[in-house]
Amino acid sequence: MEGITSSPEDNTYSEEEEELKRRRPNQENNANPQGYSNQANSFSELNQLEEKMRRKLQFFFMNPIEKWKAKRKFPYKFVVQVIKIILVTFQLCLFAHNRYNHVNYTWDNRISFSHLFLLGWDSTREIDAYPPGAGPLAIYKIDDFYSTLDFACAGYSNLSNAIGPYSYNDENNIPPDPVFCQYNYKQGIINGFNESYEFNSEIVETCINFTLKRNNQFQSRQFLKDSSLDVNFASLVRAKLMFSIKTINFRAAGPITPPDCYKFDVEVIFDNEDHDGQMSLSLQAEPTKLTCKGDQSYITDNKIDQILRSIMNILVILICSVSFVLCSRAIYRAQLLKELTVHFFQRAYNKHLSLEGRLEFLNIWYIMIIINDILIIMGSAIKEQIERNQFINDQWNICSLFLGLGNLLVWFGVLRYLGFFKTYNVVILTLKKAAPKIFRFCVCALLIYAGFMFCGWLILGPYHMKFRSLATTSECLFSLINGDDMFATFSIMPKKSPMLWWFSRVYLYSFISLYIYVVLSLFISVIMDAYDTIKQYYKDGFPKSDLQQFIGEASVDEVSSGLYRTQSSTSLNAIMNSLFCCNFYRSAYSKIGGRSSQQNLL
User: Fold this and answer.
1) In this structure, how many other beta carbons lie within 10 angstroms of the beta carbon of residue 259?
2) Which of 105, 268, 409, 441 is the most buried (most CB within 10 A)?
């Protein structure tokens, strides 16, 4: 025994023996050569396990270029993302062009209908100007109410006088009767002279068809009187005149695209909910696409166009589905490897892997890709439904929302691949470093902002058009932060109340000075501080978590040497089983550490 313990060759195991004794305090075989040999073998296996674990983690955290050099592993996820960006962007461009034409066409038709059916409509109301160039379109007299109804019915009867190619919603082009509906309180009688009233808040709907005669001018007042339908303006909440018009859009036609057929459900709306003596007047026209029965020469071309659009939608759905499966599998395998690493740290070093080290296995980029895959798949499915069936305007908006957000996240994902180069990674690292401080800073700034917002809405709202609602108040304050339209905000405030006029000055000066000169400057300084820290990291080295310290850095020569293309790492599972008997992690690792799946690990 003395020869064994005093030999120079065996002194190198003294530290390892102590470590093994510490990890296995219950073993009593350290005093004999056989026990010493077992410990030496166990330590050798532990070193072998550590090396294989380090190599596996190094390969896991490599980028696609390094993985190609290390294992000649084809970067199929990267190729899928590139193909997806091309297809999704091309699909979005086509859909955006069609949607613009659709929205522009329906908007222009709504303007035409307003000129045809709304009494008092003029071209100044067609442009959204700020400040508004005209007040709201409204009626104030009972005679104006019936005159507006008569004007709308006359325009509907004389539809052939319109420049647009409008027709009635009837196979024989005979005008169906428009429908007039009024919504009244069940009981609403006002006697203002003695401050008395009778009121029941239940709303009752009453509808009647307006029978129009071609030769006689329609008189709505007389018709309603003969129909025993009296309009009680004291209880009237809202009234609508409804009819449908068909038309065809030749502008959409192209080499393989036939014209589009539409039906517009037109509503002339009288809104009296405020009961303030002003009944606002508006028009809505909801489009619905119809199946055309046009020139036979377009039948073949129409099928070609529909087939090409369907192929594009199917390709996008397929490529996004593949991307979804690959990224989901990568996240799942990363979590399995994380559990294996946690178990390794616990058994080999008797310590827990830090939270920062655990978060290294959660790839936020993959989560973002999964979200944009789901959005694009849903948007493409709705797009296919729009192009195959009849649709309404809301489907266009929902489809554009899904496709637009999905494409936004797809292009954000390109930053991941730019991040492989240090020159382009500065922005991502700066945002990542500054994110916690920015969040805490924004919480404090938003509390002050909310106080100003509620105060301005309450005090200035009745007098200032920019503070009429909570939403417009927030928009006004945010615009002031960015230096937009400051003088107009000051000048619009009326001087009817000197106290409120002076308060508005103090309020606006305080808010603008605080947020432009203090809050924005501090916000920029937070980001600049993070940027300076990242630059210093590039010079002195980035701080490393316990996981990164264990992994180390693989040299370029080591990556290209073919070391990672060997099958030696397949014995990692066996070593884990011999040292750490844990069935759960052994079975978990068998899913990612076997010979067949080792080459495909992420």
Assistant:
1) 15
2) 268
Same domain, 438 and 528: yes
Contact, 573 vs 385, CB < 8 A? no
Same-domain status, 281 and 149: yes
Q: Which residue has the tokens 């199929």?
A: 76
Q: Range of 237's domain?
A: 129-294
Determine contact, residues 38/29, Cβ cutoff 8 Å.
yes
83-87, long-range: CB within 8 Å, 24+ apart, which pairs? 83/319, 84/316, 84/319, 84/320, 84/323, 84/410, 85/410, 85/411, 85/414, 87/312, 87/315, 87/316, 87/319
Paired sense of beta strands 138-139 and 179-191, if any:
unpaired
Give SS3 for 217.
Answer: coil
| Cβ proximity of 548 and 341 under 8 Å | no
CA distances to 358, 441, 474 from 435, in Å: 19, 10, 24
Of 12, 22, 15, 17, the closest CA to residue 349 belongs to 22
- What single-letter amino acid sits at 448? I
Q: What is the mean pLDDT of each run of 10 residues along the chain (602 residues)?
A: 38 42 43 51 66 79 74 78 91 88 89 92 82 83 93 91 91 89 89 83 91 79 86 91 91 69 92 91 89 68 75 93 92 87 81 82 88 94 81 77 92 79 75 87 93 94 90 93 87 86 93 92 91 82 72 59 50 50 45 39 33
Residue 264: which of 283, 282, 251 has the closest Cα?
A: 283
CA 233 vs. chain centroid, Å, equals 45
> 10 Å Cβ neighbour count for 161?
10
CA separation for the pair 560, 72 (Å, rounded): 9
CA distance 505 to 100: 43
Q: How many domains does the chain have?
A: 3
Other CB atoms within a 10 A radius of the CB of residue 569 amount to: 19
Alpha-carbon distance 450 to 454, whole Å?
A: 6
Q: What is the dihedral of CA 171, 175, 176, 182, to 10 degrees?
A: 150
Residue 248 buriedness (CB in 10 A; 0-12 / 13-18 / 19+): middle
DSSP secondary structure, 526-560, as one string = HHHHHHHHHHHHHHH-----HHHHHH----HHHHH
Burial class (CB in 10 A: 0-12, 13-18, 19+), 260: buried
Q: Distance between the two ends of the chain, CA-based, in angstroms?
A: 50
Rg from Cα positions in the chain: 37
- Report how far residue 463's alpha carbon sits from residue 443's, in angstroms, rounded to the nearest whole number: 30
> Do 159 and 305 lie in a common domain?
no
DSSP 164-201: S--EESSTT-PPPPPEEEEEEEEEEEEEGGGTEEEEEE
Does residue 243 contact residue 254 with C-beta atoms inside 8 Å?
no
Question: For residue 233, what are the CA distances in angstroms to 119, 278, 421?
Answer: 19, 11, 71
Among candidate residues 228, 259, 294, the one where a domain is terminated: 294
Task: Kindly report the length of the chain.
Answer: 602
Residues 6+ apart with CB under 8 A from 580: 343, 344, 347
Rounded CA-CA distance 546/551 in Å is: 9
The one-letter amino acid at 512: I
